[in-house]
Amino acid sequence: MSPRPDTRGRGSRPSRPQQTHVQPARRVAFDVLQAVRESDAYANLLLPTRIARAALSSADAALATELTYGTLRMQGYYDRVIQIAAGRPVDRIDPPLLDVLRLGAHQLLSTRVAAHAAVNESVGLARTVGSRSGTGFVNGVLREIGRHTPEEWRQQVAGRAKNEDDRLAALYSHPVWVIRAFRRSLDAEGRGDELEALLEADNTAPRVNLIALPGLADEPEGARPDRFSPPGFTAGGGDPQRLVEEADGRIRVQDEGSQLAALALTRARPVVPGERWLDLCAGPGGKAALLAAEALAGGASLVANELVPARAELVRRALAPVPLEVSVWEKDGVVVGAENPEAFDRILLDAPCTGLGALRRRPEARWRKTPRDVAELTVLQAALLDSAVAALKPGGLLAYVTCSPHLAETRGIVQDALDRHAGVLQAEPTAELMQAFTAERMDLAGDGDTVQLWPHRHVTDAMFIALLRKTADAPA
Q1: N or C terminus: fewer CB in 10 A for the chain?
Q2: Rounded CA separation 185/202 (Å)
Q3: 3-class state of residue 32 by DSSP
Q4: In this prediction, what percent of the chain has a pLDDT beyond 70?
């Protein structure tokens, strides 16, 4: 495949802007991609706002969503294709034009959008952000991509890989370090052969799961019950947000894995009226709302703690539909245990983590996180877990949860805590306790003391859950 001529116009004076009509869905998708790149914006937060501002129809909103998330998920792969078609590394392409090329490559290689529409609309976008020569460059690169089938491009990209990990990184659009971390996690379960299935699932648009808060709402007519979470369901059709609004927040959008993480704490054993519960890192509030509904049903009380004021406000909003008085603290979770020793019967520690288990929903996270983030986060996770142990009553139950399958953030943190608190903290049979309340039996692997959910196996985010108990005779 011959390299394209250098017509990208870097450094040249932009021509006078032309009046160019760009289809609104593509404009919205491009704007979000640009904000993600320039400002570290989160697509899942920004995209709904931009869709509403542009007053997109349902069809255009669906297109903008597919273009945005599809491009972000497969960005690494598209960059390899663009590099071949352009004949130069992508870091030598002006960033706004690279965003246009990624968006165009996604339409050409992964959607049913007609090739001429993908190229023409992309050229129109390029006119609004680049020079005349840059527009020609985009036109040439995309036409080169369109000359070959998606399978031919996969073969070309795979053929240029340096090794097996690089091949997987290229074809499945994940950083090499993430692929190696996933492999180690699966190997720890004896399921290393599932790696490619996991990577493929990460690049699949997730379904929209909802929950009817127990005791406060019922599943709407036509809903399909979730496989595992008893109060969870998917809508039979229509707009999920409409269901949320009509139920005044007592029906919520929430991944099934997140539901199971909260229910693991509340349903592992019967609730004794008068129990005090704590959600130590409660923002943005989805699990706190479920805990509040369960506490209300069982006669328990709940405190929700969130350090960041803006996130604490989100927690208050999430809790508002539940008729239970919940105190929302804005404390550093690391000191909560020292300030409130042995004060709580159950504690949920949904620890800050890399978020590698939610790459289906937040695909840009794969390009932002680094191994250094893991090292920094594990220090915080260990400190928060120590604080939770201190705040837990003797005989109390603690759920350590992350939305990451990285062994350093999951089994490593739990085992280190058990070693530090030997004689005080014990592992509970988490898998057995969770199987007792799920609607269907889950395909779980590992030693049974912890549960690792997976998108390819359970169609959930990759939530890690470990139930720990403070011994009844633990010294203060």
Answers
A1: C
A2: 15
A3: helix
A4: 95
- Told to judge if 403 belongs to the known catalytic residues of this protein, a careful annotator would answer yes
Three-state secondary structure call for residue 160: coil
Structure tokens that stand for 307 in this block:
């350090």
CB within 8 Å of 322: residues ≥ 6 apart: 213, 216, 250, 289, 292, 293, 296
Contact predicate 394/471, CB 8 Å: yes
Asked whether residue 4 carries a pLDDT value surpassing 80, the answer given is no
Q: What is the per-residue pLDDT across 112-138, written as a single tens digit (0 to 9) for each?
A: 999 999 999 999 999 999 778 889 999
CA pair distance 135, 114, nearest whole angstrom: 20
Q: Tell me the C-alpha to C-alpha distance, in Å, between residue 423 and each of 86, 203, 280, 469.
A: 62, 43, 23, 11
DSSP letters, 414-427, are HHHHHHHTTTTEEE
User: pTM of the entire structure?
Assistant: 0.92
Structural tokens at position 424 = 């005080």
Residue 203 has pLDDT above 80, yes or no: yes
> Torsions phi, psi of 427, nearest 5?
-80, 135
Containing H/E element for 297?
A: helix 286-298
CA torsion 3-5-6-7 (nearest 10°) is -130
Nearest alpha carbon to residue 420 among 398, 389, 451: 389
The active-site residue out of 403, 424, 462, 474 is: 403
Residue 180 — pLDDT band, cuts 50, 70, 90? very high
Contact 86, 63 (CB under 8 A): no
pLDDT given at position 2: 41
Contact 453, 257 (CB under 8 A): yes
- Residue 316 phi/psi, 5° resolution? -60, -40
List Cβ neighbours of 2 (8 Å cut-off, separation of 6 or more).
87
Kindly list the distances between the CA atom of residue 99 and the CA atoms of 36, 72, 246, 405, in Å, as whole numbers in the listed order.
Answer: 10, 10, 38, 30
Q: Over the stretch 349-360, which tens digit does the pLDDT of each residue have?
A: 999 999 999 999
Report DSSP letters for 83-147, one per residue.
HHHHTS-GGGS-HHHHHHHHHHHHHHHHS---HHHHHHHHHHHHHHHS-HHHHHHHHHHHHHHHT
Which residues are 56's β-sheet partners?
Answer: none
The residues pairing with 397 across neighbouring beta strands, listed in sequence order, are 346, 469
